[in-house]
Each structure stands twice: as structure tokens, then as C-alpha cells.
Design a protein that fits this description.
Blueprint lengths: L2 H7 E4 L3 H10 L1 E6 L5 H12 L3 E9 L3 E4 L2 E4 L3 E8 L11
Antiparallel strand pairs: 1-2, 2-6, 3-6, 4-5
Helix pairs in contact: 1-3
Length: 97
């Protein structure tokens, strides 16, 4: 799998209170990934893009919430979230490019 395909797997980091606590406490980072991505693909993408060693990857599907858009009812899209735990001594910094 080429680097172009690996970079397509990751959509964005999930920045929330829960993910910040997980990063500080457990060295675990949360990413929004493509729905078709597997654990192995996510692991390879993180290792290639950030030059770190991944200990484990947990993925889960997030169901889209039902929302009202004006008078019509709609639903947000489903998406996949990946919890990536890094090996000790490795870190990802989102502040520096």
C-alpha cells in the first residue's frame, strides 16, 4: 500500500475532553478514519505519517444522530473512530507540522 493510500485512511484527529485525557493518561490518541479502514491499515498509516510505533488499535463505528434540519428530519452520517495506543517513549504532537 502506497503512502498516498495510507494518508487517505486518516481523516482527522478527534479533539475532545475525553481524547485529551486519554492522550495524557494512557498515551492513547483518537482519530476519525475512513469507514472501510481496518486496524492494520490504521496502524500502518499512523506509523508512516508520524514516525512512531503503535502498540494497539481499537476501532468503533459511531452511528449518526437523528437531527432536525428546519422542518425536515435528517440524520448525520455514520463514521468510524480509532483509538491508537503508542508504545512507551513515543508521542504525537499536533501543534507542530
Amino acid at each position: 500500500m502506497s503512502n498516498y493510500q495510507l494518508s487517505d485512511i486518516l481523516d482527522a484527529p478527534v479533539i475532545s475532553e475525553k481524547s485529551t485525557i486519554a492522550a495524557e493518561k494512557d498515551n492513547r490518541f483518537v482519530f476519525r478514519v475512513k469507514k472501510q479502514a481496518t486496524k492494520i491499515q490504521v496502524k500502518k498509516a499512523i506509523e508512516a505519517m508520524f514516525s512512531v510505533e503503535v502498540d494497539s488499535v481499537h476501532v468503533l463505528n459511531v452511528k449518526g444522530k437523528k437531527k432536525r434540519f428546519g422542518k425536515t428530519l435528517g440524520q448525520r452520517s455514520d463514521w468510524k473512530k480509532a483509538y491508537v495506543k503508542l508504545k512507551p517513549g513515543h508521542d504525537i504532537s499536533f501543534a507542530t507540522p
